[in-house]
Design goal:
This protein is an alpha/beta fold. The chain has helices spanning about 15-20, 40-45, 65-75, 85-95, 110-120, 135-145, 155-165; strands spanning about 5-10, 25-30, 35, 50-55, 60, 80-85, 100-105, 125-130, 150, 170-175. The protein has an 8-stranded parallel beta barrel with strand order 1-2-4-6-7-8-9-10, surrounded by 6 helices. Strand 1 (about 5-10), helix 1 (about 15-20) and strand 2 form a beta-alpha-beta unit. The longest helix has 14 residues, at about 110-120. The chain is globular and about 40 Å long.
């Protein structure tokens, strides 16, 4: 699956409903949901022809181990996951779904440690947060040779353009106005 452009990330049911009706968006990233809601959300999204990525670390009630991943892949039928944990990335890759490793660029030490971790886990994509630091996006894209997605604190079209010019292939945002 090739990810590019603006990728909508959903926290609220109202936003989910808006995205279901939006024919321009073929992908939904689900954030902060409960395990009991997940089957229905993914079912409705798939029924509308959407691909679904879930932030595995933010699904309340789900333990993302071998069995949790099996549940996501075989029962829920997600198209991919987002996680900060290398073990979850490895499980996603083993199960043949898109694996996005989330990296928090809080300081240069964290970036260096995360790059070392990413070279081992080899995710399909890296999501860099906050996505408003062009130099960090460039650095991570150049050092890892893995496509970078910018996310977090992106509020304007100018910030989207800046992230893309810095080497991001896509931008995630929960701001409806930017979808």
């Amino acid at each position: 699956m090739e990810l590019q452009g603006v990728l909508p990330a959903v926290r609220k049911m109202k936003d989910f409903e808006v995205l279901l009706k939006n024919d321009e968006q073929s992908l939904i990233i689900l954030l902060e949901t409960r395990i009991a809601q997940l089957p229905q959300l993914v079912h409705y999204a798939k029924k509308r022809g959407k691909r679904v990525l879930v932030h595995a670390d933010l699904i309340n009630g789900l333990k993302v181990d071998q069995y949790g991943m099996e549940f996501l892949v075989r029962q829920i039928k997600v198209d991919g996951i987002v996680s900060t944990r290398a073990s979850v990335i490895a499980l996603a890759k083993k199960n043949g779904i898109v694996a996005i490793q989330r990296l928090f660029a809080i300081d240069s030490s964290a970036v260096t440690k995360n790059i070392a971790l990413i070279t081992k886990s080899k995710p399909d994509y890296i999501e860099v947060l906050p996505g408003i630091i062009p130099s960090v996006i460039s650095e991570i894209a150049e050092e890892t040779k893995i496509p970078v997605i910018a996310g977090g604190l992106i509020k304007t079209e100018e910030e989207i353009a800046s992230a893309m010019q810095s080497g991001a292939v896509a931008v995630t945002t929960s701001r409806r106005s930017l979808w």
